[in-house]
Amino acid sequence: MTMHRMIEARREELLSRDAEETVAFVTQMYSDNALRFWNAPPQCRVRTSAMIWGEVIATEIRSTIGYSCHIAPLQDHVYFERSLRGRARLRGGGSDFQQHRNDLVVFPFGVPIIADCDSHDVNLLHIPHALLTELAAQSGIEPTAFQFTSLEPRDARSERFWGRLFDLTHHELTDPSSPVLTELVVQNLTRTLAAAALAVFPNTTMDLHLQPGPGAVPSSAVQRAVDYIHANPARPITVAELATQAGSSVRALQNAFRVQHDMTPLEYLRRVRLERARGDLIAAEPSDGYTVALIAARWGFTNPGRFAQLYKQTYGNSPKHELRS
Fold first, then answer.
1. Per residue, what are the HEC states of 145-188?
2. What angle do CA 37, 43, 47 make, to 5 degrees?
3. Per-residue pLDDT reduced to its tens digit, 202-214
4. Does residue 108 contact residue 151 with C-beta atoms inside 8 Å?
5. Burial level of 180, CB count in 10 A (0-12/13-18/19+)?
6. Strand 10-16 and strand 46-53: pairing?
7. Residue 68: exposed, middle, or buried by beta-carbon count in 10 A (0-12, 13-18, 19+)?
8. Dihedrals φ, ψ of 309, to 5°?
9. What pLDDT is recorded for position 221?
10. Which of 47, 210, 304, 313 can bridge 62 by disulfide, Cβ–Cβ 3.0-4.6 Å?
């Protein structure tokens, strides 16, 4: 019954007329942003409030200043914004447009954005990037291949739908006394919001219908992808890159790999990397000074704990045991 328990949000807020204090707070809340104020009159004011409900965050920003903001590629979350007052120019991800009252935008994961804002009031919702990639995977998109391809909704009807859902969600999440925000509701509300975002904002899941159907991929095409993996296992290879090497669509290559190798292309890449890492662990001498983390990183495993788990599942021994033996 714990899913129906009421949950408490954590509030982070700032009310300030000091530029340096504002920069410090915004940098803490919104990744590494470079702020430059170009219109800060004596009576200017900035108010920022964030309600943090586990992994989803609802934010309000109210300001009477003009500033430029270089927003670094976002980590962990994707931000969705509604403009309430003032104006802003947003550039990034191939888009360059003027944002006015009631406009709705997405700040994609991994895409730097330049924003020039003047007395701009906004509401924001932060959704975990991992949840979006999980839902995108159900459409056949590998997590590393998922990306929003535009900052704006795809059409007016989708924008109206998103606006109603956004406003309802933001209103409830910014009210800590809301009687409906149980753990179960927040989790499912966040999931609904993420699924709706995939239907509203152009992204790589929408490109699937433009690709050729799964069809039959000859074994020679799959072998080209396999050869490319073996030649470049330490590189950050994407499934789209492998499809280009094979001369097929992403979906077709994924299906062919499952038929011929009983795994996805990226699972095959991971297996090759594990094999290379195992060879280095076995060959290492004590005088070499190698560590498990160093060898794991050489082959693209940036999380040593996750590497150790995968290694033991595959080979039955821990990588530390392999290195010492």
1. HCCECCCCCCCHHHHHHHHHHHHHHHHHHCCCCCCCCEHHHHHH
2. 70
3. 888 876 544 444 4
4. yes
5. exposed
6. antiparallel
7. middle
8. -65, -45
9. 85
10. 47
pLDDT tens string 132-165? 999 988 777 778 788 888 888 988 899 999 999 9
> CA 241 to CA 257: how far, in whole Å?
15
Residue 121 to residue 63: CA distance in whole angstroms: 6
pLDDT digits (tens, 9 = 90+) for 302-321: 888 888 888 888 888 888 88
- In one-letter notation, the amino acid at residue 119 is S
The kind and range of the H/E element at 70 are strand 66-71
| Contact residues for 66 (Cβ-Cβ < 8 A; gap 6+) | 37, 38, 39, 40, 117, 118, 119
Name the pTM for this structure: 0.61
Per DSSP, the three-state class of 88 is: strand
Q: Which amino acid is at 9?
A: A
3-state secondary structure of 46: strand
Contact present, 106 and 201 (Cβ < 8 Å): yes
Residue 23 CB contacts under 8 Å (≥ 6 apart), including other chains: 35
Query: In the numeric block, which tokens belong to residue 218?
Result: 């000859």
Q: How many residues does the chain have?
A: 325
